[in-house]
């Protein structure tokens, strides 16, 4: 992940200039080039496919958009692009910007958000945990398929891990799942998914 030295942007100017360029996020007015790798995109793509299959099987009114932006705070120039975000299509009527642009501002619209860890692991494990919990997103997965996160987050020895964060009393309770272990999700309790199922071949 590279921090691009530019003038500070507002969320509106970020959307206008970079809304169609999915490799960029905004954090405190600073443009961030997320520089996704091929393996990173493979994992995100496989996750999207697996989640879509389960959503279809359960006939849920949920959708996984390809370019949605999550705006966690109204008064802070931050706009996130989760690798995967599962939205409640029925709740989108309440979103003030949705009819004009794919911007999500309400936690009630979001069923699940997923970040696939790359070189910016500190952001996924710390800053986004805080942002997504403050917004009130009930479930957040951190998919660390390379085991890059710090020992404080994924333990020792460092290994590929999915951390499932579930909101309890405005804070996330976190549970780690390693290779071979079935993920436990409140958003999709019937899903049979392991980290092994989404790794690059």
TrEMBL record:
PANTHER family: SLL0198 PROTEIN-RELATED, SLL0888 PROTEIN. GO terms for molecular function: endonuclease activity. Keywords: Endonuclease, Hydrolase, Nuclease. This is Uma2 family endonuclease. Residues 19-194 form the Putative restriction endonuclease domain.
